[in-house]
Amino acid sequence: MVAGIEHCIYCFDVLVSEFEGRKHLEPEFEDMAFPLFVTWNIINHGHSRLRGCIGNFDALPLHTGLKEYAINSAFHDRRFSPITIRELAHLECAVSLLTDFEDAEDYLDWEIGVHGIWIEFTDDHNRRKTATYLPEIAEEQGWSKVEAIDSLLRKGGFTGRITDRVRQRIILRRYQSAKYQITYDEYLEYVKSRKGLIGNNSDSSVLLKSPMLANVAKITTTTTSTDFRKLKRP
């Protein structure tokens, strides 16, 4: 199974429902179990800026997992303030379903643009730490493998001098992901087409009747497993 538009649509549905304080719509896709991440970005003048990203390396049923992490990444990523309704029209949602986990031979045994990496290491105080980057991160940042590893060590809390000996002691697991992403405008178009297909009596038509959705454009224009759980993208 690969990530699809229906998974991103559901995450937007969940976010809109949270803003409106109403019951979430029921998802319309198969409830398989996957490790997953939900990412929210802000699109501004064609540039994407991370707004929240949290996931789980345990395999979770998609219905509950996507709902939980759509909310967590939007409102509970400690690196950012909670997403607000004023940002809704500028949001992009990405869903990553993680697959093909493998133990690496060493810290260089992975491919940029193909593998995500999870590392385990011991910090300066002999405490065990972990950190991860999704498959797209190193390529987006223009990093070499060594640069990605060094950045991930810092992300995980390593504050000492990074030497090749430190890198060699890392335990690394690599994985791949199936990713899909849509913008808020694409979400609205999908909702409109869904309403046309299923009729006005469906619960999904509530989205188009929503006062919050009707006013969101106006609002925005007035302002310029092991320890794999709840891991965050940089």
TrEMBL record:
The protein in question is named: 1380_t:CDS:1
The cross-references to PANTHER family, in alphabetical order and at most eight, read: AMME SYNDROME CANDIDATE GENE 1 PROTEIN (PTHR13016:SF0), AMMECR1 HOMOLOG (PTHR13016)
InterPro entries assigned: AMMECR1 (IPR023473), AMMECR1_dom_sf (IPR036071), AMMECR1_domain (IPR002733), AMMECR1_N (IPR027485)
- The domain of life is Eukaryota
AMMECR1 domain span: 1-191
Native organism is Ambispora leptoticha
